[in-house]
């Protein structure tokens, strides 16, 4: 028997589980579970919720996991934990997600329903694209990047490692010799319209997007 886990039993994980079931349709002798170290619930939407230790010690013939945690820094730690125990990470793609020509995407990615990756795009490890997000031509996306629902990432954009782009944000078109750059660890607020580069570890909001000034 093969055991498939979705790491995260709340929020995003509950949206990913149906995609996993859909992807495994027709495969025999499999079980899908949530992996959650909180330990407060035993069953979620008809699936067992077990701890990571229970998952890695399960007597299944093989184990696979998808890390459905929105926070990039948490995803990094959980990816390291899975690697330490040689647990392969899954790539999950909704059947109506679209990936076009000359696209490379690293391991551990999740492409939710109605997402589109167009042509000549390079994406790193553990990328999350939530519903209705798109990445247009000639973009370069780093590792552990998160796109919330409805992100519009236009062509010639570079999004560096650990960046988070909020719901409905728009990243304007860059140029082949001067891509729009979202720096490492930057946060783009929901609904923001980004017209210029965002510095690393900076939060921007508004239209046009500007650094958030905390009071």
TrEMBL record:
Keywords linked to the UniProt accession: Transferase
Catalytic residues as annotated in Swiss-Prot or TrEMBL: 137
Cited Pfam families: PglD_N
Binding, substrate: 70
Any GO MF annotation of the entry: transferase activity
Domain PglD N-terminal: 6-81
Lineage: superkingdom: Bacteria
SUPFAM superfamilies: Trimeric LpxA-like enzymes (SSF51161)
Annotated site residue numbers, Increases basicity of active site His: 138
InterPro entries associated with the record: AcTrfase_PglD-like, PglD_N, Trans_hexapeptide_repeat, Trimer_LpxA-like_sf
PANTHER family, sorted: ACETYLTRANSFERASE, UDP-N-ACETYLBACILLOSAMINE N-ACETYLTRANSFERASE
Protein family per UniProt: Belongs to the transferase hexapeptide repeat family.
Protein name: Acetyltransferase
The species this protein was found in: Pararhodobacter oceanensis
């Amino acid at each position: 028997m093969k055991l498939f886990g979705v790491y995260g039993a709340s929020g995003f994980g509950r949206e990913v589980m149906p995609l996993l079931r859909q992807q495994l349709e027709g495969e025999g002798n499999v079980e899908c579970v949530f992996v959650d170290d909180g330990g407060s619930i035993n069953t979620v939407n008809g699936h067992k919720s077990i701890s990571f230790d229970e998952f890695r010690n399960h007597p299944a013939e093989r184990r696979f996991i998808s890390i459905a945690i929105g926070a990039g820094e948490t995803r990094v730690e959980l990816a390291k934990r899975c690697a330490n125990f040689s647990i392969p990470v899954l790539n999950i793609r909704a059947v109506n997600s679209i990936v076009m020509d000359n696209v490379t995407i690293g391991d551990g990615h999740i492409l939710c329903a109605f997402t589109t990756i167009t042509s000549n795009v390079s994406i790193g490890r553990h990328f999350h694209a939530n519903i209705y997000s798109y990445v247009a031509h000639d973009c370069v996306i780093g590792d552990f990047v998160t796109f919330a629902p409805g992100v519009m990432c236009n062509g010639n954009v570079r999004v560096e490692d650990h960046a988070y782009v909020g719901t409905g944000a728009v990243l304007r078109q860059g140029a082949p010799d001067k891509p729009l750059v979202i720096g490492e660890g930057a946060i783009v607020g929901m609904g923001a319209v980004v017209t210029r580069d965002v510095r690393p570890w900076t939060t921007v909001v508004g239209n046009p997007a500007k650094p958030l000034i905390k009071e």
